[in-house]
Design a protein that fits this description.
With 116 residues, this protein is an alpha+beta fold. The protein has a six-stranded antiparallel beta sheet with strand order 2-3-4-5-1-6, with helices on one face.
């Protein structure tokens, strides 16, 4: 069996949305619902002062979901690791819709548990 990990960078995002906790919480909630993920507890968030970004992490029974926003660069970095295979999620369209991202790079990594 293999797990799967997505490493995602969204560029050209609306800085105001990258500073808005509600927007990033909506992103996490949509990922959890759409991919049938199972949070172990509430997500944890840290909002940096002034015009800073937000760091969020969600511990999942499948592993983790994390993001870091950089409004000063218009960038969101997101990581989702699932210990069981999952269908791909439409990161490109969803991040364009939620964050006004201009460009989204998605890397999918299959994570085998046995060597060989």
């Amino acid at each position: 069996m293999n797990g799967v990990e997505w490493i995602v960078e969204a560029y050209g995002c609306a800085p105001g949305r990258l500073r808005d906790l509600g927007t990033l919480q909506e992103l996490f909630a949509k990922l959890v619902a759409d991919l049938d993920l199972h949070p172990c507890s509430d997500s944890q968030w840290h909002q940096f002062p002034s015009a800073g970004g937000i760091t969020g992490v969600h511990m999942l029974s499948e592993s983790h979901l994390a993001c870091h926003s950089f409004p000063e660069y218009g960038t969101l970095c997101l990581n989702l690791f699932c210990c069981r295979p999952r269908a791909d999620w439409d990161f490109v369209d969803e991040l364009k819709r939620l964050l006004d991202a201009q460009t989204v790079h998605v890397r999918r990594i299959d994570r085998p548990y046995q060597h060989g």
